[in-house]
Fold each of these.
Amino acid sequence: MITDTLKVFVTVAEQRNFSQAAKLLNLSQPGVSLHIRNLENELGSKLMHRSPKLVKLTEAGEILFRKAQQILALYDEAKADIHMLRDEVTGSLYMGASFTIGEYILPRVLAEYAHQYPLVDVQVHISNTDNILHDIRAGRFHIGLVEGKVDAKDLKVTAFMKDEMVLISAPDHPLAAEKSVDINRLQDQVWVMRETGSGTRAYSDKLIQDGNLSVKRSFVFNSSQGVKEAVACGLGIALLSRWVVRKELESGELRELSIRGMKISRDLSLLQSKDEPAVMAVLKFIQTLKLDARSLYADF
């Protein structure tokens, strides 16, 4: 079926690599190459420049890539509508999630969703908030799940849960012995932070700016796990979601530094293109997300 070949082409174009695409599609690399070669023969045009390390789309390839995404989305929508006639939820669900949500909240929601709707093919891409926004706008995902303030008037943004941010340190940090700390006690500290573009980093920057704090030194990691491990090893202090550090706080591996007179919270938000068609697999996931969010927040 032509949609199979188009899916191979789109995956190679997104991954920029034949080997990685083959792994994701559970195909052999020669099989992936054959799909692309057949497509080029059918269209009479070269679609990709190939090199050992990278694949780059030609001008014709860029045109096909945009159209192929639309074709596949319409095909999934058609399948979902047809299966709705049999009261089945099927098709595909492609979503992007920022690290805190993707690694600490989404797995629990997906477990419930997969149990209820086993025929839906779910794919999750975890990245920082800025990247998820970019990919939603590019039409790569049905939905995005991100943390923090989102300035995106071109998208539908729906808050589905509150998240508390906590300041943490290693147990032997000089501030760890204090029950609560004044904001001025955070002057000239070493900070461990997420990268620019992360929803978590935005809150670290805001705390430092609002408190008019000077930073002695900072270390930057592109994952919350990296930040957490660095703090546990005594590298510095950090601001992270309570979801990320709750187990380590309970075990005593990390200490919470309560800032006197201050509580920091943020929204966790669902992003959708305003033009995204109402696919049943997506609608049912959103329903599951909102129901689970209430129970997760109550238990937290």
Amino acid sequence: MKRSRSPIDVRALEAFVAVCETGSMTAAAKRLQVSQSAVSQSIAALEREQGADLVDRDSRPPRPNLAGRALLELASPLLQRAHTVSGRIKDASLAGTPPVRLGCVDSFAATVGPEIIRAMSGSTRQIEMWSGLTPAHSRQVHDGEVDVVVCTQTVVNDNRIVELPLLSEAFLAVMSRRWLDGRAPKDSHWRQLAAELPLIRYTARSVIGQQIERLARHLGINGPRRYEFDATDPMLSLVSANLGFAISTPLCLWQARHYLNEIAVFPLPTGRLSRRDFFILHRQGEWVEFVENISSLTGRVLDQLICPALTRSLPQLPADALLPKPTN
């Protein structure tokens, strides 16, 4: 009888993600507050359980191979679900304390979301985080299926729903660093990029795909719809191979940050279509303190973690590429 693969061990998966995100076993061990050997053993055990190597150990820093990239793309929702289950078990005895159901667009859930969960892990408030497409979440908060929503496009016409700005990010042209090799500054511009390479798109059924398509038409980028993806990770795999360029945002790039050493960005012209805004939705008079905490934590995560890391990896990143909600 063929032996089936073992289920994913959550702690081993956390170690694998930490190595991919920090770029070293030492830094991953520091983040997880364990020994370096424990991190190495966890990843080795994960590879044995799944019957495949996940990390290219010949590269410096260590990077996920093809199988590892596939796992990394799935890791965030797996870990989020595992933390949700753990939290529900932990808080099951807290009578009269209902969980807050937080719906988030995928790029927020996978980037800022884990930091919010981590910051609130000491609280008695249970959080159930759901990710998905913006229109679905907007309807869900309207129908009472979720309590708070982080979305990029509001489609609810209901004066009982409060809408608050959360953050704003610029659309950027993204290309392989190989495309820049040997080019004079006058040839290094998004117009030249669009003239030479096809646009690799997000699928048109997503809000970000629709927003980028409107921007591309406005900029005169009208190439054929040759490649379309639901997620940033597979899209950047083609971009890094210099098979095309993309239009994306800082949070999406951070979501697929293991590609940052292989890509570069150009700013696009500023204008009404050139930014993606995030909002928090909640019902009037409900979860007000929780929403304030989400807003405050989001600002700290952007200022202290995501923006500095992106700027180090992508020095071409405009200063206003990722902005938290202004504080009064």
Amino acid sequence: MDLEIRHLRVVCAIAEAGSLTRAAASLRMTQPGLSAQLRRIEAALGGPLFDRRQSGTVPTPFGELVIGRARAILPGIDGLLSDTARAARRMTAADRIRVGSVGAPLLGHLLLAVRALLPEADLTCRCQYSPVALLDDLAARRLEAAVLGDHPDQELPQHAGVALHTIVSEPVFALLPAAHPLATRDEVPLAELLEEDWAVPRPDSDRTPEYWASVCTSAGRAPFAPYEAEGRQLIEIVRAGLAVSLCQATFIEVPGVSVRPLAENPLWYRHLLAWHHDGPLAPYGTEILRRVADGYLATCSDSPVYARWRELNPHAARPVTVAP
């Protein structure tokens, strides 16, 4: 019989239990079965490992040698098995892809890319406002990929093992009630927008309100923001004519609101994709970036205001170019 790792575990279990009966119970074996296995192990090693006494089992000097070596070896073996199992899960985890996203136009394109490249994957997603929280979840491997965003001079921190890929930096536009006088303009001066009441997102770890306020202050005054809201609620406040706000350039106008570029493009937003260097999406990274960048361009054409802005600014807000 060749000696195996499981045989060393048996020897250590007997030594720790102090009797074959207790060791058999801990190993979920019968006592006769354990006795037979011990005899085979002793024959393979070349000598008795335990003295069988009425009070239990006591290691022989030869057994002490074997037990000492086994206890030195097994932690290293367990570490190796743990590390290789973890690595194997990472390589084969393509059956479970968890995606997180901020509110951005890239999520659908990312999901479609993953679905096309890994059609058997169990693909799920969840959205939240803060990119920092999503990045933390990604670094902790609670997500396999994320759609993120940040602002100039407020870039997201780097995390070991996480790759951040810029898709595009785009201008931030004004969001106005459709009947607002500024909605008749082709572009809106920030200084005039600051004369209105604002609706802004709640303060969060992405620091969007802080970024807006810092740029607005440099333009002459901080925005007066009596309304704090996000998503649909923010749009409803603007639609009601109570306030103005800012939005992503790809925001598609809905009845009751108008989107207009800001004169001289004072505010910008960067769209990013992120995944693990050694995660299940890493081998497909180039193709994912290409598909998402192409999808972003298609999204741009769905927003007439942004499409027009891009025609007038052909060298700005170009998504990353990825070779096929």
Amino acid sequence: MRPLVRQVRARDGLALSALEWAGDEARTPLLCLSGICRTGWDYEGLAERHAGKRRVVALDYMGHGESARAAEVSRYRPERAAADVLDACAALHLPRAVVVGTSFGGIMAMILAVLRPTLLRGAVLNDIGPRIDPRGVSLVGNFAGHDPGFRTIEEAVEYLRRVMPRIPLPDEASWRHFAQLTYKPDEDGRLHPRWDTRIQQAMEAGGGTLDLGPVFRAMRPIPAMLVWGEESEFLAADTVRAMVRDKPDLELVTLPGAGHAPTLNEPEIARPLDRFLDSIR
């Protein structure tokens, strides 16, 4: 099932793009939020498993995918992204949702638990928690502001394999698909990022990492699952243990040997994830 491409506006007029798969309107829809430098197409596999059963919406943040690029770098601050998510939910008629958030998208889910707790019917945090491992901060910092301008998709695959070796992609075709979701051809015939590389400047202006412990604790009443790549550069084992202590009913699913971040299509992840999502009406 191909998704409908929806265009909505944030409160300041910036255009935001979303993919929408139709489904049973009586069930709580899924709202899928990707990581930095990623787009809603990362959720195509999950959406195809749940489309028809319920609506699935995957949002492109400002400066990502088909959403508009901001005139000012300060527009890329995380608090503006959270406001955009709420604006998109209003425009797309999503008063309630199960939020599936990968990396930065999981941070957005935690923030929504504070800003709009009535929105969250459930949440899936994919390889992210209230404390980000410094290795992850360094990884995304070196990647987000870089535009290599690849001549071929093979060059892009080689680069991604080098800088993100622990992504759990099973074969060459999967890496190629991942590269195609990461870079797109431009007028110069080269492949460029599907995000505004100035986002890196906004990240640097934001300073050090935040302690999101109090924000995570706002999720205590909400049914939630944590997906963890056991070799994650972003989510350390001690943070996972602390999350389980803070929220004893948190469902934990681990992918051994995987780094940041599981695609949510791995059989070891997809089966328990889909059971969790199906349990929420």
